[in-house]
Design a protein that fits this description.
D-amino Acid Aminotransferase, Chain A, domain 1, binds pyridoxal-5'-phosphate, nine-stranded antiparallel beta sheet, alpha+beta, D-amino Acid Aminotransferase, Chain A, domain 2, 2 domains
């Protein structure tokens, strides 16, 4: 790949092979020391549990170039801890937090020539994953595992300012009440492809999943968490054991409270009571925040602030978090981790 040919401002969210990835193997009950490799393929048994029984988990985080040229990661320890929780849920060995963070730094450093410049809005996206491999045929935990991190530069999510998009509620569920919704495991995403496709075919950006037990409460917006701003300026986000705990969401809860002086609540968000919110958004690593223009439910479109303009509170939340991630705003202690 020729770096000179990359137009940083025009990158999308697309795969690109970079120079190095990190790999560590787990055999006989322990992880090896791990290393950087140049190839972007894996050779695994045809019978690997990851391929048949979905014994796999993944993470997503970004590295940011600051104004003074430094490179920093945003809360990588939180991704490491979430991966451990996912591993516990599907019987995979934990990859230690310090080693996870260290491996993220190694991968970014080794691919520094792909690191987008400050001001382009582009970032380096890291994809850590952990899979069950080795020979196996019964439904049981795999005998061996691979932990791997690869990375690639990705474009600014909003190329011409933040534009709200519309969503539609789905009749399908992404997770069962006491299933694996809170774990970032592959199976949850295979099941979301069809409802996503239906939403797109109806002219929406993605679907909104309601709580699987009663279908009365908002749970997730596609593969992002939901938040709403009430008419009296409270930051509200749903709470449920089947929601994937978004690091962006917890960061926004903190920012709303400590930086913007707002009241915050984690509680049920009833779909029949969405007019309690004057603004709403979807949050996650990829977009930081996607403003929600409106939500279609039972054939009626409910519009929040506007279908074309981002609301003022959503904009402030976005600017603060984006500022912290790129080093222009001081973050809480430990949120940014320098790559050196
Ligand atoms: C990854 C993910 C999110 C966002 O999590 P972040 O840590 O903020 O990137 C939200 N919902 C689902 C279903 C996810 O998989």
């Amino acid at each position: 790949m020729q770096i000179e040919n990359i137009d940083w401002g025009k990158l999308g969210f697309n795969y690109m092979k970079t120079d190095f990835s990190y790999i560590s193997y787990y055999k006989d009950g322990q992880w090896d020391e791990g290393k950087l490799i140049e190839e972007n393929t894996l050779t695994i048994s045809q019978s690997a549990a990851a391929l048949h029984y979905g014994q796999q988990t993944f993470e997503g985080l970004k590295a940011y170039r600051t104004k003074n040229g430094d490179i920093q990661l945003f809360r990588p320890d939180e991704n490491a801890k979430r991966m451990i929780k996912s591993c516990n849920r599907i019987m995979m060995p934990e990859f230690p937090v310090e080693r996870f963070v260290d491996a993220c730094k190694k991968v970014v450093k080794a691919n520094e020539r792909f690191m987008p410049p400050y001001g382009s809005g582009a970032t380096m996206y890291l994809r850590p994953f952990l899979i069950g491999v080795g020979d196996n045929i019964g439904v049981k935990p795999a005998p061996e595992y691979i932990f791997c991190i690869f990375c690639m530069p990705v474009g600014p999510y909003f190329k011409g300012g933040m534009t709200p998009v519309n969503f539609i509620t789905s009749e399908y569920d992404r997770a069962a009440p006491y299933g694996t919704g809170a774990a970032k495991v592959g199976g949850n995403y295979a099941g979301s492809l069809y409802p996503h496709e239906l939403a797109v075919k109806s002219g929406f950006a993605d679907c909104i999943y309601l709580d699987p037990a009663t279908h009365t409460k908002i749970e997730e917006v596609g593969a992002a968490n939901f938040f709403g701003i009430t008419k009296d300026d409270k930051f509200v986000t749903p709470i449920s054991p089947s929601i994937l705990p978004s690091i962006t969401k917890y960061s926004l809860l903190h920012i709303a409270k400590e930086y913007l002086g707002m009241e915050v609540e984690e509680r049920d968000c009833l779909i029949d009571n969405i007019d309690e919110f004057k603004e709403a958004g979807a949050c996650g690593t990829a977009a930081v925040i996607t403003p929600i223009g409106g939500i279609s439910h039972n054939g009626k479109l409910h519009v929040f602030h506007s279908e074309t303009e981002v609301g003022p509170v959503t904009k402030k939340l976005y600017d603060t978090l984006y500022g912290i991630q790129f080093g222009d705003v001081d973050g809480p202690e430990g949120w940014v981790v320098k790559v050196d």
